[in-house]
Inverse folding.
């Protein structure tokens, strides 16, 4: 392991601020200044290390390329002021006679593209037999606008458990977005949290990251695109670089459906009507720590934001009802085999595309971000039809529900959305107050969830891993004089200035003041704790990462006030035994 000495300027500033009590609060913002310090280190004293050389090479290779967000000020983007040369319009190398006939003249093109760059490519794509990309100029008037709010906080996920993590629209998952093929869609990303967030929109066949890839706290950014390919899609937070998977692992995602405009799904064609039950079903996972998230050791699974939700709230239809399920496995780690007991699919459509259909089938296999549309009829027989992930380990953790066929049920159409349950503020407060367990993948949950890991006096050095943007173990209990060593196990590289894989540990509350240097992958830093008490600490670049070190009170051995000591030694213990036997002998004689 490579040992790095603290960067003098950074460590001095952090310790001074901590001593004044002026440093990070629970709502602290992520530290872009730390990223700037690290960038300077890479350019100077770290330049001869292997990590520094890798990053310098990446910076050189990315120089001048239109990668990521070019932001000025306290930026992490080393090449922020280097503008990429404007590319010349790409020419179609060769066009067959038939293709020439299909290419429209400029005057016949949709007026929204007037004055756009790469107009020859746009003309070509607009006249191909396949669907166009999603590109439209950003000033195009949208048909539909959606606002997604991103922040951090707590939400109830069922079974007495509160989840403390990244939220989308106040819960996990975010809102269900439904548009029609051909719609011009505007997505507004509003960051009301305390760290950078962003968005990746899988339904957009065009550039989105440079518009909404990194939205700072208090900002709202937007992207406009055309929904050209029907199907079921994931959208999720994407603040850039190493941090993208962290925000997905920790709860920021949702479902977007692009409904086909002309091609109908097959069962709708055959029955001549819309579904009686339209179910948007999102399967996802919850983790108790960053280490568990990275290793795929899930704690709970859920359909639409709550463990065992559709066992508690059965989906009720009637015998013979036409059911359509828009299914999306968010993951973010596990493969699912979705199945409904007593049902064979009439049709299953890969990725939800109406042209990609299959007849029949007992299940659909989905890796993370895979999706399907399945259609079937409830048999003319009352009863329950159990829907579940047939990877039954996940089922036992929450991904199971019930569709009930009841002849007395109200007729459809009925719609169930793939979003978190809605609660009043009073209900939320009660859930947080009465929760039997609070889990936080990057912070510290309640005592039941994150119990201290105990180390005895024989342990002279304790290692704390930094992995998955969290400390592991999060809470440790040690003897005075124990050295704690942090090691950064997050693996990352340079991407458009995004250094979010660097971490440190800085005390924010407790009897000892400490601040480690910024650590790259596999680097370590240590502090020896000597004073009894509880020390809370965090990562400066990622203030949502929290840990705690409990230093026990030293054991005090009382000295005897006079005479011979009868305790604390084998001889003393033997003396006590002899005295007791003597008293017993005297009592018997009397």
């Amino acid at each position: 392991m490579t040992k790095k000495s603290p960067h003098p300027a950074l460590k001095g500033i952090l310790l001074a601020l901590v001593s004044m009590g002026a440093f990070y609060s629970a709502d602290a913002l992520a530290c872009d200044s730390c990223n700037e310090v690290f960038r300077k280190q890479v350019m100077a004293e770290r330049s001869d290390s292997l990590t520094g050389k890798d990053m310098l090479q990446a910076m050189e290779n990315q120089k001048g390329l239109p990668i990521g967000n070019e932001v000025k000020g306290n930026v992490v983007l080393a090449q922020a002021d280097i503008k990429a040369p404007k590319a010349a319009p790409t020419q179609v190398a060769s066009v067959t006679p038939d293709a020439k006939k299909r290419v429209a003249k400029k005057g016949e093109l949709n007026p929204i593209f007037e004055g756009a760059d790469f107009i020859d490519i746009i003309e070509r794509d607009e006249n191909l037999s396949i669907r166009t990309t999603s590109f439209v100029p950003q000033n195009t008037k949208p048909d539909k606008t959606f606002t997604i709010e991103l922040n951090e906080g707590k939400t109830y996920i069922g079974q007495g458990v509160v989840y403390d993590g990244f939220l989308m629209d106040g819960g996990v998952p975010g809102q269900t977005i439904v548009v029609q093929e051909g719609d011009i869609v505007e997505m507004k990303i509003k960051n009301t949290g305390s760290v950078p967030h962003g968005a990746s929109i899988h339904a957009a066949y065009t550039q989105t990251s440079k518009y909404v890839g990194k939205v700072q706290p208090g900002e709202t950014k937007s992207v406009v695109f055309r929904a050209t390919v029907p199907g079921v899609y994931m959208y999720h937070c994407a603040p850039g670089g190493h941090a993208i998977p962290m925000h997905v692992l920790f709860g920021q995602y949702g479902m977007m459906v692009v409904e086909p405009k002309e091609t109908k799904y097959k069962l709708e064609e055959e029955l001549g009507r819309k579904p009686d039950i339209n179910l948007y079903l999102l399967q996802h996972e919850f983790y108790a720590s960053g280490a568990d998230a990275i290793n795929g050791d899930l704690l709970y699974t859920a359909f639409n934001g709550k463990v065992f939700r559709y066992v508690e709230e059965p989906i009720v239809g009637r015998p013979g009802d036409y059911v359509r399920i828009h299914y999306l496995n968010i993951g973010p780690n596990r493969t699912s085999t979705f199945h409904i007991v007593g049902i064979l699919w009439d049709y299953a459509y890969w990725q939800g595309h109406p042209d990609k259909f299959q007849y029949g089938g007992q299940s659909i296999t989905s890796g993370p971000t895979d999706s399907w549309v399945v259609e079937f009829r409830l048999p003319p027989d009352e009863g329950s039809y159990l829907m579940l992930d047939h990877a039954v380990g996940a089922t036992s953790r929450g991904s199971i529900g019930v569709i009930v066929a009841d002849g007395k049920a109200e007729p459809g159409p009925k719609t169930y959305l793939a979003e978190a349950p809605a609660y009043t503020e009073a209900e939320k407060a009660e859930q947080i107050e009465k929760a039997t367990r609070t889990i936080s993948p990057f912070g510290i949950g309640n005592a039941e969830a994150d119990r201290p890991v105990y180390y005895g006096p024989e342990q002279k050095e304790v290692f704390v891993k930094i992995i998955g943007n969290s400390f592991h173990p999060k809470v440790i209990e040690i003897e005075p004089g124990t050295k704690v060593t942090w090691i950064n196990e997050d693996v990352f590289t340079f991407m458009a200035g995004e250094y979010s894989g660097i971490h440190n540990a800085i005390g924010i509350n407790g009897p000892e003041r400490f601040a480690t240097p910024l650590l790259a992958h596999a680097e370590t830093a240590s502090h020896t704790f000597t004073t009894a008490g509880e020390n809370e600490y965090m990562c400066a670049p990622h203030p949502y990462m929290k840990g705690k070190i409990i230093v026990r009170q030293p054991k005090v051995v009382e000295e005897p006030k006079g005479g011979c000591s009868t305790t604390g030694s084998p001889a003393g213990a033997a003396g006590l035994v002899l005295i007791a036997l003597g008293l017993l002998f005297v009592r018997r004689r009397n």
About this structure: The chain has a mean pLDDT of 84.
